[in-house]
Amino acid sequence: MDNAQISFIAWRFYLILLVIALAVGGLAYRAFDLTVLDQFFLRQQGNERVLRLVSAPAFRGMILDRNGFPLAVSTPVYSVWINPYEISLSTAVLSPLLHKLQIKPKEMTKIIQHAQKNDREFVYLRRGLAPQLAEQIRALAITGVYLQKDSRRYYPEGEVTGHVIGLTNVDDQGQEGLELAFNDWLQGEPGRKWVIKDRIGRTISEVQTLQEQKPGHDLILSIDKRIQYLAYRELLAGVTKDQVESASVVVLDAKTGEVLAMVNQPSFNPNNRLIPNTENLRNRAVTDTFEPGSTMKAFSISLALKSGHYTADTVINTSPGWMRVGHNLVKDEHNNGLLTVRQILDKSSNVGVTKMILTLPRDQLWEILHRVGFGEVSGIGFPGEQSGSLLKHQPWGDFTLATLAWGYGLSINTLQLARAYAVIAMHGKKLPVSLLRLDHPPAGEQIMDADIANQILLLLESVVTEKGATGYMARIPGYRVGGKTGTAWIASHGGYEKHNYNAIFVGIAPISDPRLVVAVVMHNPRGKYYHGGTVSGPVFKKIMEGSLRILNVPPDAA
């Protein structure tokens, strides 16, 4: 081997040594850099793989009836989410997961591709899974598939309390009813904490709690679950029997102003978020208004008695069953001839009420209707509540005043009707109404003379007890009951609809010491009958009778 060859080999040997030395030096520098100079990078990379900031959901407060029975509770559920950059597209790997979640492979491929296109690392697959199914998915141990603990609202009474309680959405936020009205009170505050997780998403340990979770507050309602169910059952039976389009019932505790039941038909099940007809979500007892018809005659006659010109036994000639007011005709269904004021209310005579009201000062009727609460919201804070309308005319035309006296020209809701009759039940005192349980009854405000209110109570009793009176079908054995019927044409854009009516009954019991007020409104009955006394009266009777017995109210009649 000559010197040239030896020199070449030596040069190549030293070159290799130099390359190795540079590589070792570079690795040593990089190790020094990462472990001493730039520790943040390695720590960040490690943390991104195992350290997670997770949310600890706060359970919503329960909604309870006045006796502590749960009407809305939160139950633990799970959401399944994926990281599209970690998950495998292998059919063999994903097939068990897709089968359990009922997702088609093509749909899954689209979900992953769309997420990657939008650079998303978090995509929900399914939400609201039962713990048993979530545990089955966890056992699959699929890389990139994770579980998140959530809570979901459950409503034990379903349709029975649906309109009052409302419902929440998939994020547990109130959307309807009291769930919406008291959302801030119920929802609480979720917690936040750092945890270490393994590669399949299991929590290994908790590192630091940033914010403790705070559960929501409970909400105790004035609703009595027993009376609510009774009202729901009897209203549904009445709607079915008389082929009613829609209906509502309100049961009020006259002594406290608490709403013991509020029911509508058609109803909905809040446990099923896929509600085909969103119109059924409306709490018609407060959102739908109607002309109350003859139920207003109790207040018209109260003014006649207050004037001192009339008593319950004053006789008024209603022959020949009609009268002309200006260019308009006021008619009764029959020619009742001579009637006392008591009989005018019994037979619901439009002519008799008109003759009395036209002899009184013009603004008095509007004032009493306004004082008992028509034309204003009730103050219960229910979402979507309507105030109705009560216009004050200046000047009052004779026919306008007459029609107001027998319940046309104003619009009200079912709750307002019950509240107004509660004034009569409480001897002229007006109490605020409440959907929350009250520990102490409010003081109230005296807005009607007690003596006049007591006289009206006795006249309302006559409407139920006198054979041939319009409310005779509402009598209850063992109890003194008073009430008033109403049968009102339904108004539309083109005027009043022929042969379409609202059948109404509102009543009080027991008359000797009033405890309950029940208002029943049946919208557009299509069966054989359509009058308030024959359609709504029997429903009132069953609800009132059952409620009195549930509350152990002693009978007051022989």
Explain this structure.
37% of the residues lie in helices and 24% in strands. It is of the alpha+beta class and 558 residues long. The chain folds into 2 domains: 53-220, Alpha-Beta Complex (Penicillin-binding protein 2a (Domain 2)), CATH 3.90.1310; 225-271 and 283-550, DD-peptidase/beta-lactamase superfamily (Beta-lactamase). Strands 2, 3, 4, 5 and 10 form a 5-stranded mixed sheet that branches. The chain has a 5-stranded antiparallel sheet with strand order 12-11-23-22-21, with helices on both faces. A hairpin with a 5-residue loop joins strand 6 (167-168) and strand 7. The longest helix is centred in the first third of the chain and has 35 residues, at 3-37. The protein is elongated, with a radius of gyration of 36 Å. The mean pLDDT is 89.
Question: Between the first and last Cα atoms, what is the distance in angstroms?
Answer: 139 Å
CATH topology of the largest domain, which one?
Answer: Beta-lactamase
How many individual domains?
A: 2
The percentage helix is 25-40%
Low-confidence parts lasting 5 or more residues at pLDDT below 50? none
Shape: elongated
